[in-house]
Inverse folding.
């Protein structure tokens, strides 16, 4: 479904991604991990069109999407949540999700359903209970994460890029977020690539794990293989010793 071929990304003289080669099959649940500053969010930004790769190809459903605008990439079937939730603060929670329903890939397919009704359906799917007048500023950290997912799902994606959806959540919220990801995968058959720093839930849910360090892929395999990989252990121990992995 997604193939990344020899992708580089430069910011002035700094190389954030180096010769990235990655294949994700349809229906797969892939974990993407690495120390802080390893290039995970940069890779998401390249896939979703926020950045254009400096070199290489990004293929989705066999078409090269590198250089397309984020809206065109969304219409092709890729959606994402953000590490820091980005709701439209002047709009209600329901209106935020309606935007995804109105402007995402599936509008022509689901045009028979009222956008407000569809928004309510996605909010219910992620377990976010709000009324018609609820505003994003009233939501907890966990609820904002659920809003991100509801808005992303309303675009009717084939591929979901989930960026640290458990960051800042308590244990109960982490369990709820895990259940939502399981529902997305099992009930909707959406392919998922998930960036996360909280390792326990990720290792319990994903099929395979790709590990980035200093903008390069250093390991790939099953959760068990990755948890025992010396290069991965060294990368994370180095982060702990230095306090931050730039």
């Amino acid at each position: 479904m997604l193939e990344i071929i020899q992708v580089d990304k430069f910011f002035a003289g700094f190389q954030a991604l180096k010769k990235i080669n990655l294949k994700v099959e349809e229906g797969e649940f892939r974990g993407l991990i690495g120390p802080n500053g390893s290039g995970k969010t940069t890779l998401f930004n390249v896939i979703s069109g926020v950045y254009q790769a400096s070199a290489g190809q990004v293929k989705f459903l066999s078409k090269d999407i590198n250089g397309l605008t984020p809206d065109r990439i969304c219409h092709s079937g890729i959606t994402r949540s953000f590490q820091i939730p980005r709701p439209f603060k002047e709009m209600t929670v329901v209106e935020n999700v309606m935007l995804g329903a109105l402007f995402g890939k599936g509008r022509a397919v689901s045009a028979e359903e009222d956008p407000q009704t569809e928004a309510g359906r996605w909010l219910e799917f992620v377990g976010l209970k709000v009324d018609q007048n609820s505003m994003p500023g009233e939501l907890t950290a966990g609820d904002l994460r659920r809003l991100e997912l509801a808005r992303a799902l309303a675009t009717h994606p084939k591929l979901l890029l989930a960026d640290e959806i458990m960051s800042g959540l308590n244990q109960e919220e982490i369990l709820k977020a895990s259940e939502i990801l399981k529902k997305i995968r099992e009930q909707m058959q959406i392919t998922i690539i998930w960036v996360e720093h909280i390792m326990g839930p990720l290792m319990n849910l994903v099929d395979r794990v790709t590990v980035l360090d200093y903008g390069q892929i250093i390991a790939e395999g099953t959760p068990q293989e990755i948890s025992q990989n010396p290069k991965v252990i060294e990368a994370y121990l180095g982060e702990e010793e230095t306090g931050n992995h730039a």
Q: What stands out?
A: The chain has nine helices and ten strands. The CA atoms of residues 204 and 223 lie 8 Å apart.
